[in-house]
C-alpha cells in the first residue's frame, strides 16, 4: 500500500470545475470501482483492509487521498484523518460507509467535516440501548430492555435478574447480527450466561443489553432512505428467526423477498413505521437494514436497525430485487441522488443458505457450478471448501448461498425444498478438536 499512514493528494479526474467529493470508508471492490471511476473520492482504510481486502492499487490511485487507520474505533486517528481531509478539500458532500465496523467512525468523520450529521445518530445505530431508548420515547413499539454495563458484577446481575420477566435476550450492546447473543429462559440461566459470557473477537465493548424476548415472524426492511422517504424499499422474510437458526430449531436457513404487489397492506403499514424510526434516530440519506417482528395480530415490533447494507446474503437478495447490483445503486444515490427504478429478476425471489447439520470438517460441499446447475438459480456464492472446519457458533458463519427465483409461489416453494435436498453440505467431527 503506497500510502499506509500517509496522505496522497491530487485530482486524478483533471477537471477544472470543482465538483463535490465523497469520503469512502473501507474497501468494497464493486462500490469502490463505481465511486472512484465516477467522482472525486477520499479513501480511508483500516489495517484489516490493507492486509486482507485485495485492494486494486491501480483503481486506488484514482483517489484524491488515501489514508489508513488501525481501526475505525481509533478516535485520535479518525480525528486527524478528518482534519487532513477538511484542510485539503472544502467540497466534501458525503461520507459513504458500507460496513458495521466503520459506522461509528463514519459519524465522527462526518461531524468533523461539518456535514450536519450528529454523531449521536451513528451511535444510536450501533448501541442498541440508545437505539431502543430513542425509539421508545418516540412511541415506536420496541422490546423492554435493561442496560448491564458489567456482566462480571455478580450483585448487579442478581439484582437485575429479580426485575426480569423471562425469557429474555442477552447480547452485546454494540454487537451486530446474532454474534454472542443468547436467549435465556430463567434467572439461574441468566446468572450463568453473564458469568461465562464470551465475546466474538471483533467486538470491543463488553457492555450488554438485556431485552424482552419477542416472538413472531421475523421480517427485514432494506431501503435507501432519503430526506423525502425511500428511494427504494423491500420487505423480506427470514424462513426462521435468527435465534432459532442459532439454536438449531429450524429445518432451513434463508429468506424470501415479499413483493409489493403480493403484500400491499404490509408495505402500506411498514413505510410510516420506518419513517417514525428514522425520525427518532435522526438518520437520513443512507442505506438501512431494519429488522422487525410481525405479531400474529399484524402488529409490528421493532427489533434493531443498521445504517448500512445488510450482511450475509442481503446484498445478493436486494440486487436481485433491484435488477442490478446494490453497490451500483448506492453509488448512483451517493453521486447523483437518484437511481433507476427496481426491475426484479422474477416475481418470487429467495435465497437458501446451505449449511450442515452439525459443526465439523467439510467432506462434501457443492461448488458454484453445482448450484448454478439447478433450474431457477440466478447466483451462487460458496464461502468454504472441502476440509474447511465449521464451528457454527452463530448463524452468520456463511457456507453456501443459492439465490433463485420463480414465476409462481408454488414453483418457489418447490425450489426451497429441492435446493437443499439436491445440494447437501456434509461434515464429520474433527478428531481431537
TrEMBL record:
GO molecular function, one term: ATP binding
Any Pfam family the entry gives: ATP-grasp_4
ATP-grasp domain span: 132-335
Keyword Nucleotide-binding: yes
UniProt KW keywords: ATP-binding, Ligase, Nucleotide-binding
Listed InterPro entries: ATP-dep_AA_Ligase, ATP-grasp, ATP_grasp_subdomain_1
Protein name, UniProt field: ATP-grasp domain-containing protein
